[in-house]
Amino acid sequence: MINIESKIEVLKQKCAEANMRLTPQRIEVLKMIASTDTHPDAETVYESVKEVMPFISLDTVYRTLASLEDLGLIFKVDNELPKSRYDADLSPHCHFICLKCGAVYDIHMDNHIEPPKESFKYGEVLQTNLQVKGICHKCRG
Amino acid sequence: MINIESKIEVLKQKCAEANMRLTPQRIEVLKMIASTDTHPDAETVYESVKEVMPFISLDTVYRTLASLEDLGLIFKVDNELPKSRYDADLSPHCHFICLKCGAVYDIHMDNHIEPPKESFKYGEVLQTNLQVKGICHKCRG
DNA sequence: GTTATTATTAGTAATAATTACTAATAAGGA
DNA sequence: TCCTTATTAGTAATTATTACTAATAATAAC
To answer: Taking CA B33 as the corner, what is the angle to CA B95 and CA A115, rounded to the nearest 5 degrees?
Structure first.
């Protein structure tokens, strides 16, 4: 479980460093993603944040997600589904993705994955992600 | 390098099994993807196939890609880029993806990746993919 | 605290990628 | 060779995301 208060604190610092403003929209969007393990898409974030901030626009949600990603506070889950899914958990873990319903489950790991040696042949390595895909128990019925 | 003739042979068999027709469009789309290691997107496949088949439609390319994926002859490369990229190489390998230009390079491996044990908690595992992301040499200049 | 600056936002329009629809076509079995 | 029906071309529609613009509000300077 992510400590939301400390996440907000990091947002505060990173915004100051990047000359970006600490707006309530940024705080709410980050809070929403950090408080769930469902890896929501932009639309879901929008619907959820609207409950406490009825006039927020979908555009703002998309822009805010991009900003938070730039600041390194959240990242997109790699998938081949039409909608991008977001994750605020920066601890070493990977994902089980259901090919039928699109559900994303966390698989916790002791360490981040080491990139294969051949990787460095192609450029500077910034992240290494592992996805496990299959059919979740719910979809199997 | 993929043996294209044997790929077409597999397409033939799989189509017969699945009560699907062996159309020239399917052959050309598969040929195109199997003959490159650039992991092209739908638009690129379309432009390329149009050279030998000028009246093919983009819709057919999309439908054909989906069919070939269903038959297990090609698969989508996991990424967070706006366009889906396709791969016909079924041997054990993963991808280096450049975050700047979107280039996808193959990283060959001796064996397919073992899914972490926790994976099975969530459902039936069908595939395990590893992506290495960074900035490629060309983009570093 | 007040004011000024300008990053950010709401609302909406536009774009990009993909999917759906329909009449015409052609693959493959009889 | 004919028939059945899966598939296609051409185009329209949908979906996810991004861009635009005037209005707003976060922060710094006074």
So the answer is: 5
The alpha-carbon radius of gyration of chain A (Å, integer) is 16
Q: Which nucleotide is nearest to B56 (CA to C1')?
A: D9
- Beta-carbon contacts of residue A30 (< 8 Å; ≥ 6 apart): A7, A8, A11, A68, A73, A74, A88
Angle at A113 between CA A96 and CA B106, to 5 degrees: 85
For residues B23 and B60, is the Cβ–Cβ distance under 8 A? no
The pLDDT value recorded for residue B80 is 87
> Would you put residue B102 in left (φ > 0), alpha (ψ -120 to 50) or beta?
left
Residue A75, min C-alpha distance to chain B (Å): 10
**Residue B1 pLDDT:** 73
Q: Residues B39-49: pLDDT tens digits?
A: 999 999 999 99
Residue nearest to nucleotide C20 (CA to C1'): B59
Confidence of residue A95 (pLDDT cuts 50, 70, 90): very high
Q: A80 — contact with chain B (CB < 8 Å)? A: yes
Residue A119 has phi, psi (to 5 degrees) of -55, -40
The answer to whether the CB of A105 falls within 8 A of the CB of B122 is: yes
From B136's Cα to the closest Cα of chain A, the distance in A is: 4
